[in-house]
Design goal:
single chain, 119 residues, mainly alpha, 2 strands, 61% helix, 3% strand, elongated
C-alpha cells in the first residue's frame, strides 16, 4: 500500500516540474506569452486593479476600447482571485502575469493528474 503512495508522489513531482521546464522563460522574466496576452487580457486586469483595489475594484476601464464598464469584459482575468492578490500585495506587471500563468497551469496539471489516478 505504501508503494502506491510513493508512485503517486513521484508522479506529482514530475508533473510539477514539467511546466517549470516548458515555461522557464516566463519564470525568469525573459519572455511572456505572445499575441493577445499583451493586449486585452493584460490591460483589463491591470486597469481593474490599478484604478481600484482588492476590496473596491473599478467599474470602468478607461484604457481599453475607448472605455467600457469592466463587468462587460467576458474574458477579463480580473475576476481571477490570484490576479487580485498579486496586484494588491505586489506589482502586477507583464512578467508577473506570465509567472501567474505558469502557476495556474501547474496547479491544473496536478489536479488532472490526481483526478486521472483516482479514476
Amino acid at each position: 500500500m505504501k508503494n502506491i503512495y510513493k508512485h503517486e508522489f513521484v508522479g506529482i513531482v514530475l508533473v510539477s516540474l514539467l511546466p517549470i521546464f516548458v515555461f522557464w522563460g516566463y519564470l525568469v522574466g525573459k519572455t511572456a506569452p505572445p499575441w493577445d496576452f499583451f493586449g486585452d487580457y493584460y490591460t483589463q486586469a491591470y486597469s481593474w486593479w490599478d484604478l481600484g483595489s482588492f476590496f473596491d475594484p473599478t467599474t470602468y476601464l478607461p484604457y481599453l476600447v475607448s472605455g467600457f464598464p469592466s463587468h462587460l469584459g467576458l474574458q477579463v482575468s480580473s475576476y481571477y482571485l490570484p490576479v487580485g492578490l498579486i496586484a494588491e500585495f505586489g506589482e502586477y506587471t507583464i512578467m508577473n502575469a506570465a509567472r501567474l500563468q505558469v502557476f495556474t497551469i501547474s496547479f491544473g496539471l496536478i489536479g488532472i493528474f490526481i483526478l486521472a489516478k483516482k479514476f
